[in-house]
## 1
Amino acid sequence: MTDQNKQLFLTALKDRFQKHMHRHQTITWSEVENRLLSHQQTLDTIYAMEQSGGEPDVFVYHDQWLYVDFSKESPKDRTNTCYDEKARVSRKKFPPPSSAIEMAEIMGTHLLDETLYQAIQEVDELDLKTSSWLSTPDELRKLGGALFGDRRYNRTFIYHNGADSYYGVRGFRGYVTLEK
């Protein structure tokens, strides 16, 4: 990222931060900016989240500062994915080019788990037309399944599906911790 791109990106993050103060009422932009400038790798990850349509913003969760994808729908550039590589390569017909876990690892993010997904749904209504893969416990994944969530009928739902399934309206949301 060039210095000019970095400044433009920081301005966009600041604008989003100020527009959505309900996500992080206890912190200031200057505190966030200082952390971002101290951790270039984290800033690069957040940039990748932005470039793929995630609209990342700060979310204070259990005293941690996270950058979380807050796009209204699951990020469009992250849809049509199986849950993980194992599921993707095991498909006999029409395997997608990537999986949610593989894409998240390349970007440097983590998939939201059930608890974090429920928490962001309490502050903003997301995935009204889409769904998002969620970090799945090993015991469920070993049985071939994976979790995903969405919001319908003014309620957040967590479901399961075969990890090898993929749909045009299912993607994933990521997060990265903003360290001190």
## 2
Amino acid sequence: MRIDRCLSAAALAMALTSAHALPPAPRVALVQPSGPEVPANLLRLSLQFQRPVEGPVLARLALVGPDGTQLQAPFFEQELWSPDGKALTVLMHPGRVKSGLNAHDELGPILSPGEDVILVLDGRPIKRWRVGEADTAGPDATAWTLSAVRAGSRQPLVVSLDGPIDGRDADYLAVADPHGERMAGQARLVHGERAWTFVPSVPWSAGTYKLVARGTLEDPCGNRLGSRFETPAQAPPGAPVDAEIPFSVR
């Protein structure tokens, strides 16, 4: 179903009329999570623009239901921009995501399983998600699988993850060569951030390599390797620990 058909005709017309007076919306190249579904405890999302953006964007964003009803106060009032001014990370209000906090108890959670939500910029729908169950498990590197690559080739290494990771965390994974040095190459997250691909700058050599994941790598719900966003305040998680997965190139 096209996104614009998810809004009622009246709600969409009102949104577009309101947006008409605004300057042209910046062109969005990618919204992450890029898959069709998000967990009910989604903590962050990101927008990548085609060009650097000037001025605040958060006030121009909204989450709406299929009927055009706007969700109240879903975002934390802070904009996190990449150094090049082209990628914006938006946090959902953490007090409404984490259970047991006042905002969660008084205002309720932002998202509910089974509903559809649409991200809107300047009244224009840019991404639609189905809301699934909350994800409190987090990434588990022991469940990842690595594709085979051939020595003498620049064949991409494909790491199938156990679930989506944060869209801004592509560089939180790296490949260490047989000498323990980080390999240069191009890393990308694909398939709704459920897979990580790496194309080395030089051909693979025979030997034993390591896939290294930083302990601060997170999923879109704020769960890290070895720790969870829902950890009680009286039992804080330990220091992050990197994960290493050895693999051989023959």
